[in-house]
């Protein structure tokens, strides 16, 4: 178990800069998720921590000791890959024993350790099989088993669940989380799935364009997004960003003819400033007015039932807004209606810089 | 992939099928004809071949009426090649030794080279690959004269080791190409996993990659085996009397013009020279074509 | 030590690189240099001839025959193997029950050496005892097939033997490519009302373009190298009527001790190959990135 410090790390491939001044610090036992769209540099960062790529600048430290110039095998880490990267010619048992074999453990120690981990992951019955004879979920377990046998100080996961079907993904998600709680290891986990990030992480780093957009706990990221990118990336359906102008008295936001009260948690900018009001779809509702909510006149555009909820796309002063209402809510397509919206957590963003304006 | 021309039950469709099969079988007959002529002739006696009394109706495509293995045994152990009358035996073993060493060396080196060029990228690796690739395409006439000198300098002129060296040198570009194109299809993550698990350059190669490389080993070995076994140019240019490979000896046998031409011995000799590679193709040909078309030579 | 470890891949590659650098590039350079000297039996670098050796080769009647033969052989050999290979592949691709055996039959000549092929076909094409006699005995008295003895026709014998040997390989290339043609495109074409032959003509054959390219390059390359076939089949004869650049080079270098002329002809062969190969290599390497 180790405290991991990524200190001003950057990466340049030839002449293209892929990562710029990344700084992240996590404590021993934390579950850090790197999340971001494809191509933002998550795998690159992970590979640099693993030692598979050299770093172009900065430092990586483990409990204060620099590791960025060590060979991967000397860093005391283990990694689980998206494609599992099981050695095709070796049986499951041999696969799992491979790190031990390379480290020079005796045959008995290898067998014992592999058995232990196989029991833990419930794959003992698969030990003699070749990877080709395993299902996706089983391969996933074996890959984790191979990482676990070494008792590494740090686990690295690169989108380990993205090749699984939806149901298995949810199961494995729970399982990895349980494993983390049980073993208490430090984990660095890469995904582009924001649900995975929210459910598993103790802390999340949202990346985009080679920089960390926001680093914080899931709640911080969800409730206080630092900018429009984080706001729209985390949450599904995405947060609505509604163009608005600060009213002369700075107490309201003008969306066309609609005057919305300034949300409580924000620092109101000067009158006339163009801003974006962030509204999550689930903050909308129908029915009686309640404390801290606002009645919004909208026109219903499209209704998509999903079972427990329905996604209702509405027009507010010509702007499209996605809302999530309980199933059976009383709305009809192509008709005007009034939705109430809870504004207590709503952020506003500077229209130009995209940065959140919190009080 | 096949295109159903018409409704399979219509008369035209049946006529089409008949035409297709007739054509294919006819072609097969044409392809087999030379082999048949060789085998038949090698099993006949000279009087039968020349249509002497009793064999007036003999043709090259008539099966032997009185089959005999005489010609085979002559070709193998007593036919005269230049001045020596020991048959092809000695040269057959020369070729075997040459093939074993040349194939092992060139395939081994090509495997390692391909592994490096595919999985350990470094600055300039592509240029190096291009330069190696070029070596596959030169007409060997361009290197004959200097190579003769180099073998002289290395004191390998006329020897079997000299021939092995030559075949190794000009086999490396091909085997490197085959292995490199095979290894680029293997995911990099496997190498990364190996490095994290503590395997080094050689253990990744030997423990992780080699066990999955058998298809490309088959392709490379067949390719090199047939090329080295069938080579004539290098053998004729560089081999001394003691180191002559089989193809050179066969050519000499056929063109030794003392007395009447013994066609049956010539054909038996040709069969002896052809059997090893035919065997290799029949055993491994399926993998060869599959491997060759799935990456080695991209098509 | 650490430094050394970081360069293990490069260091491991080095011996092969050195070998290839010397035996391919160094030797090409040496041959080029030799072609500018007055070397006869042994290389000598004391007298420079400039490009006059090239002129000598170029104006030599045998070289002229060699080039002409090469053009005939090259065009007919490549064209023949491509055509036969393609037809065989298309026919074999019609869900043929005995496909496996047929494929082996078409492919086995590829396993033979040109020497064996030459020896066999020399026998088959010999007028006294070969095919001609066979047809006579089968009752076709007027059948004539003595091309191998005729100066102006002997080169076609070389073509026949070459095409017989290599068509199966081209067939295998095309067959693999045919199997790779996208099924959905075919279904779409059929729904658009295209019939069998026009599907082949407009969709499948164009899709085989890369296979055509590979086949042309491989066959062209073999054609330029084809030394053994001529040696075994006709020994360059009758006279020097089946001379090819490759036999010319060998004859002048090793039999006539005109090393400089041999070197010049080898360089010209290299140029011929390059004209064929460089565009191909270029497109291959560009597609890689
Ligand atoms: N070896 C390389 N040379 C040049 N550019 C590279 C190299 N490897 C990655 N890149 C670039 O770096 C950027 C980040 O790549 P990276 O693989 O880290 O993205 P990622 O966030 O993991 O994306 P994904 O979710 O698709 O896996 C990409 O734009 C990629 O094109
Ligand atoms: Mg990635």
Quote the beta fraction of chain C.
under 5%
Q: Cofactors and ligands present? A: adenosine-5'-triphosphate, magnesium ion
Instruction: For the record, give the distance between the C-alpha atoms at the N and C termini of chain B, rounded to a whole number.
Output: 16 Å
Distance between the terminal alpha carbons of chain C, to the nearest Å? 34 Å
What is the total tally of β strands of chain B?
0
Give the total of beta strands of chain C: 0
Taking Cα atoms only, what radius of gyration of chain C do you get, to the nearest Å?
24 Å
Gyration radius of chain B, to the nearest Å? Answer: 24 Å
- Summarize the helix and strand pattern of chain C as letters: HHHHHHHHHHHHHH
Write down the overall mean pLDDT of chain C.
Answer: 82
Give the overall form of chain C. globular
Summary tags:
heterotrimer; A: 359 residues; alpha+beta; five-stranded antiparallel β-sheet; B: 299 residues; mainly alpha; MetI-like fold; 2 domains; 13 helices; flat; disordered C terminus; binds adenosine-5'-triphosphate; binds magnesium ion
Could you characterize what this model shows?
The complex is a heterotrimer of chains A (359), B (299) and C (289). Chain A has 359 residues and is an alpha+beta fold. Chain A has helices at 42-50, 92-102, 107-121, 136-148, 166-183, 194-200, 218-223, 228-233; strands at 4-13, 16-26, 31-35, 57-62, 65-66, 77-80, 154-158, 186-191, 203-208, 211-216, 240-246, 252-255, 258-261, 274-279, 284-285, 293-305, 309-316, 319-326, 336-342, 348-350. In chain A, the strands form four sheets. In chain A, strands 6-7-8-3-9-10 form a six-stranded mixed β-sheet, with helices on both faces. In chain A, a hairpin with a 5-residue loop joins strand 11 and strand 12. Chain A is elongated and about 75 Å long. Chain B is mainly alpha-helical. Chain B folds into two domains: 8-68, no CATH class; 89-294, Orthogonal Bundle (MetI-like fold), CATH 1.10.3720. Helices cover 70% and strands 0% of the residues of chain B. The relative contact order of chain B is 0.13. Chain C has 289 residues and is mainly alpha-helical. Chain C has a single domain (57-288), classed as Orthogonal Bundle (MetI-like fold). Helix content of chain C is 73%, strand content 0%. Chain C is built from 14 helices and no strands. Chain C starts with a helix and ends with a helix. The A-B interface holds A 47, 50-52, 71-73, 77-79, 81-83, 85, 87-90, 98-99, 102-103, 146, 150 and B 187, 189-190, 192-199, 203, 207-208, 211-212. Bound molecules: adenosine-5'-triphosphate (ATP) and magnesium ion (MG). The site of magnesium ion has 3 residues of chain A, from helix 1.
């Amino acid at each position: 178990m180790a405290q991991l410090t990524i200190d001003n790390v950057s990466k340049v491939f030839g002449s293209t800069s892929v990562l710029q001044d990344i700084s992240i610090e996590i404590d021993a036992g934390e579950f850090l998720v790197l999340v971001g769209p494809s191509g933002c540099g998550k795998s690159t960062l992970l590979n640099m921590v693993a030692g598979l790529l050299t770093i172009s600048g900065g430092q990586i430290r483990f409990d204060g000791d620099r590791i960025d110039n060590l060979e991967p095998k000397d860093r005391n880490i283990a990694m689980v890959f998206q494609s599992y990267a099981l050695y095709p010619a070796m049986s499951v048992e041999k696969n799992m024993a491979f790190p031990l074999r390379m480290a020079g453990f005796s045959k008995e120690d290898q067998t014992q350790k592999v058995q232990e981990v196989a029991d833990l992951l419930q794959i003992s019955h698969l030990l003699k099989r070749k990877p080709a004879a395993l299902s996706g979920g089983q391969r996933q377990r074996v890959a984790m088993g191979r990482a676990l046998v070494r008792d590494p100080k740090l686990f690295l996961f690169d989108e380990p669940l993205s090749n699984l079907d939806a149901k298995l993904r949810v199961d494995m998600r729970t399982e990895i989380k349980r494993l983390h709680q049980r073993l208490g290891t430090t984990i660095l986990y890469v995904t582009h799935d924001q649900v995975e990030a929210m459910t598993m992480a103790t802390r999340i780093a949202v990346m985009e364009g080679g920089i960390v957009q926001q680093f914080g706990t899931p709640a911080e990221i969800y409730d206080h997004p630092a900018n429009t990118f984080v706001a729209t990336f985390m949450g599904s359906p995405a947060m609505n960003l509604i163009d608005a102008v600060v009213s002369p008295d700075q107490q309201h936001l003008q969306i066309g003819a609609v005057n919305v009260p300034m949300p409580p948690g924000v620092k109101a900018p000067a009158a006339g400033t163009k801003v974006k009001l962030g509204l999550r779809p689930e903050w909308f509702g129908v029915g009686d007015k309640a404390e801290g909510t606002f009645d919004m006149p909208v026109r219903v555009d499209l209704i998509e039932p999903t079972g427990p909820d329905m996604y209702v796309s509405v027009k507010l002063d010509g702007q499209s807004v996605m809302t999530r209402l309980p199933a059976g809510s009383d709305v009809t397509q192509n008709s005007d209606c009034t939705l109430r919206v809870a504004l207590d957590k709503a952020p506003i963003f500077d229209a130009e810089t995209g940065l959140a304006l919190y009080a | 992939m096949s295109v159903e021309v018409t409704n399979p039950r219509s008369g035209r469709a049946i006529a089409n099928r008949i035409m297709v099969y007739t054509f294919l079988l006819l072609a097969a007959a044409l392809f087999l004809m030379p082999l048949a002529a060789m085998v038949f002739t090698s099993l006949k006696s000279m009087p039968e071949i020349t249509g002497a009394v009793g064999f007036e109706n003999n043709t090259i495509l008539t099966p032997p009426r009185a089959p005999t293995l005489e010609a085979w045994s002559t070709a193998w152990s007593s036919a005269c090649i230049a001045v020596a009358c020991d048959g092809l035996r000695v040269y057959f073993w020369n070729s075997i030794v040459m093939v074993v060493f040349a194939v092992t060396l060139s395939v081994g080196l090509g495997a390692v080279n391909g592994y490096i060029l595919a999985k350990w990228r470094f600055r300039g690796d592509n240029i190096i690959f291009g330069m190696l690739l070029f070596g596959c395409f030169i007409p060997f006439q361009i290197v004959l004269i200097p190579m003769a000198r180099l073998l002289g300098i290395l004191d390998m002129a006329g020897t079997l080791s000299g021939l092995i060296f030559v075949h190794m040198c000009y086999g490396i570009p091909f085997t490197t190409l085959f292995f490199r194109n095979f290894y680029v299809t293997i995911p990099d993550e496997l190498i990364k996993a190996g490095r994290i698990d503590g395997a080094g350059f050689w253990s990744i190669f030997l423990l992780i990659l080699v066990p999955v490389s058998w298809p490309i080993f088959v392709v490379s070995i067949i390719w090199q085996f047939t090329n080295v076994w069938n080579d004539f140019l290098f053998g004729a240019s560089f081999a001394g009397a003691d180191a002559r490979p089989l193809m050179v000896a066969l050519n000499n046998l056929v063109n030794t013009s003392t007395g009447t031409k013994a066609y049956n011995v010539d054909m038996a000799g040709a069969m002896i020279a052809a059997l090893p590679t035919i065997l290799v193709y029949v055993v491994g040909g399926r993998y060869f074509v599959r491997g060759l078309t799935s990456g080695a030579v991209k098509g | 030590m650490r430094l050394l470890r970081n360069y293990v891949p490069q260091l491991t590659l080095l011996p092969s690189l050195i070998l290839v650098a010397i035996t391919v590039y160094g030797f090409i350079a040496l041959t080029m240099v030799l072609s500018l000297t007055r070397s006869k039996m042994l290389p000598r670098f004391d007298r420079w001839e400039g490009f006059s050796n090239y002129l000598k080769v170029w104006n030599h009647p045998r070289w002229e025959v060699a080039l002409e033969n090469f053009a005939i052989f090259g065009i007919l050999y490549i064209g023949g193997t491509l055509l036969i290979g393609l037809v065989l592949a298309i026919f074999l691709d019609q869900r043929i029950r005995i496909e496996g055996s047929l494929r082996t039959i078409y492919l086995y000549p590829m396993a033979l050496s040109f020497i064996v092929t030459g020896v066999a076909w020399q026998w088959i094409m010999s007028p006294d005892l070969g095919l001609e006699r066979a047809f006579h005995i089968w009752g076709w008295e007027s059948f004539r097939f003595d091309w191998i003895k005729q100066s102006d026709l002997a080169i076609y014998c070389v073509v026949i033997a070459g095409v017989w040997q290599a068509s199966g390989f081209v067939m295998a290339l095309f067959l693999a490519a045919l199997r790779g043609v996208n099924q959905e495109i075919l279904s779409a074409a059929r729904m658009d009302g295209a019939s069998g032959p026009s599907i082949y003509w407009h969709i499948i054959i164009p899709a085989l373009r890369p296979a055509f390219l590979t086949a042309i390059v491989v066959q062209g390359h073999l054609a330029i190298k084809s030394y053994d076939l001529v040696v075994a089949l006709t020994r360059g004869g009758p006279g020097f009527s089946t001379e090819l650049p490759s036999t010319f080079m060998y004859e002048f270098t090793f039999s006539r001790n005109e090393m400089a002329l041999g070197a010049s002809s080898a360089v010209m062969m290299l140029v011929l190959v390059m004209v064929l190969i460089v565009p191909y290599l270029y497109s291959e390497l560009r597609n890689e990135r």
